[in-house]
Task: structure prediction
Amino acid sequence: MIQFDYDVAVIGGGSGGYAAARTAASAGLRTVVLEGGDEVGGLCILRGCMPTKALLYAAEVIHLARHAGTWGVHTQNVSFDFSQVMARKNAMIKNFADDRRQQLADGPFKFIRALARFTDPHTLSLSHGETISAGHFIISTGSVVATPPLPRLKEIGCLTSDEALRLAQPPKSLIVLGGGAVAVEFAQFFARFDVKVTLVQRSPHILRDFDTDAATELEKVFRREGITIFTCSKLNDAWRNAKLKGITFEHEGKIVRVAAEEILFALGRVPNTASLNLGNAGVVTEHSRIVTNEQMLTSTPHIYAAGDCTSAHEIVHIAIQQGEVAAHNIAHPDQPRSLDYRLLTRVVFTDPQMGCVGLTEKEATIRNIPFVSASYPFNEHGKSLIMEALDGFVKLLANPNTGEIVGGCCVGPMGGELIHEIIAAMNQRMTVHELAALPHYHPTLAEIWTYPAEELATKIRQPPVT
Result:
């Protein structure tokens, strides 16, 4: 029998990699974690979820302060210190990253700081000159910012999401390229800190993974807050004129030129797999994304993958689940587990927040899955009226025969929190009849879910109790 240095080698020390290593080591496997990045912590902690949400909360605070007169609270000359906003964010991220470094250093596994690449299916060459071998591998190397589609963008210089988080001061004006979660969150953040923002998006609406009614609601709010939005746009060129940078694009049959002090490239990220020499290990990729099955196994029988390097869903809790599933399946090959994306959840931390779980109407229609839906607006709901949070709605999708809830969407105050009620309901395969009968305290935001549930319950015959 071949003797390997380790039972499991985990490549990448982010959220997915750490979860995989912890699970593998807890099962008694000799485990090593390899992290080759300049910083330790992973995208979520260093340049993703945590820093952006810290900034968005600051933007919400200044927005509320500027509109405090609604509640009879008098504020004058509300101002901000951008450097202090960024300093608080930096301090928080340092604490989170320090905790992760400590977890990796003190974990029940070996932790090595080095870049790794495959020399054969069981061997890694490390950047400091050593080699290691392992019986199994879990690749969790995350993602990097995608290459800009316009070559001149690189010439004239543009911000990525990584660089936007390091700004000492905001630009006076900004063009945001993209309409996904990263693009819209940064667009609103900068707009609320007095930046003139123009957002340019290729699709007919922002946030194309959400239903059109949800995207339209956020577009309405953005325009009200002074953000200029161009959808259905095709980028043609980038240019520079004195101190301004510009984009030329086609929109509604016309050529449009917009200029700003800075351009934020927010058209997505790509899997960070280019340096791994995956061909030496026989690992198949599609457009640099590692191909896996539902058990997180790649084309090579002893190599698994987890997180953004393999998943189309760049979501932290999904990466963690994938890492845990991969490690479990290595430790317990006779009891394999699979990822169930039935409860796939998306949250966008704009104001209003957007949360979605399960099927959207768009997805159900494309997949020919029968459904009925009902929605209810926040501008008719007691608690949201008290809060003056009048934008948005909640929506439920249900099986028309059984009433089982198959999807939910919340666009409105605390939408990222409220969607968890539907996650819990769907996890237990509750029907709209059961949700409608569930007691909700009054007045709360959460009780808004009872209204679409009650509407659907009257339309769907309740299945007999067995």
